[in-house]
Design brief:
- With 248 residues, the protein is α/β, with parallel strands linked by helices.
- Helix content is 45%, strand content 16%.
- It is built from eight helices and seven strands.
- Strands 3-2-1-4-5-6-7 form a seven-stranded parallel sheet, with helices on both faces.
- The longest helix has 29 residues.
- It is globular.
């Protein structure tokens, strides 16, 4: 796939799936403007992209803050007419029983995993509509498709991302803007590293391919949805789980 000349937005680009996505687009010639709260991790991403075909630029972003999202979009639009591709990757959770969730925890999970993609996408859509084209790729989770013990609010937020994707795809089709969603299964990211070791091993044993996804596995699917190959695909959710949820 070739993304030369494409202007690409990625959230959560300082680590994990977000970093792998930034680097995959850069390898394919894309110009990536990415956001994250982790400035040190972002600097590592920029350094890793420096020798690639495309380029990566970082701007601080808190996806729970509407003003920060608007500032992020404004910074991009100062030098670019519109984004060609918007990819929502930033996410967060801690595995714990639902009855242990505090109100603050619930609000944070929903703000990062659901409202963040909603507001971020809205910030870039007007220029994409004016340009009559583009791609939006959201990152949900198989937890949002089938549920996940210890991740009840997270599952609800990711289920919301899936529904958001489908509904927005219907509204944006008239403007030639495709909206699709990647639903990763268990993936080898810093977030997964916080899951208790016993649960990690149980999940790996349940995966038919007997391994976690790598961030690059997920990034490859994101690039597929962002590419011309997927021009006639919209409103779809693709599970990348090594077969864990193939029957659901």
């Amino acid at each position: 796939m070739d993304f030369t000349g494409k202007q690409i937005i990625v959230t959560g680009g300082a680590s994990g799936i977000g970093r792998a996505t930034v680097l995959a687009f850069c390898k394919a010639g894309g110009s990536v403007f990415f956001g994250d709260l982790n400035a040190d991790g972002a600097a590592e991403t920029v350094a890793a992209a420096s020798d690639l075909k495309g380029d990566a630029a970082f701007h601080a972003l808190d996806v729970t803050d509407e003003a920060a999202i608007d500032a992020f979009a404004a910074a991009f639009h100062e030098t670019h007419e519109q984004a060609d591709i918007v990819v929502n990757v930033a996410g967060w959770d801690i595995s714990q029983p639902f009855m242990d969730n505090t109100s603050e925890f619930i609000q944070k999970v929903v703000a990062i995993n659901y409202l963040g993609p909603v507001y971020l996408t809205r910030a870039f859509l007007p220029k994409m509509i004016e340009g009559n084209g583009g791609k939006v790729v959201n990152t949900a989770s198989d937890a949002g498709r089938v549920g996940s013990m210890g991740e009840t609010v997270y599952s609800g937020a990711k289920g919301g991302v899936i529904a958001f994707t489908k509904s927005l795809a219907r509204e944006m089709a008239r403007y030639r803007i495709n909206v699709n969603c990647v639903a990763p299964g268990p993936t080898d990211t810093p977030l997964f590293g916080e899951v208790p070791e016993k649960l990690q091993q149980a999940l790996i044993r349940a995966i038919p391919m007997r391994r976690l996804a790598t961030p690059e596995d997920i990034a490859g699917t994101i690039l597929f949805f962002a590419s011309p190959t997927a021009d006639y695909i919209t409103g779809q959710v693709l599970s990348v789980s090594g077969g864990l949820t193939m029957s659901d």
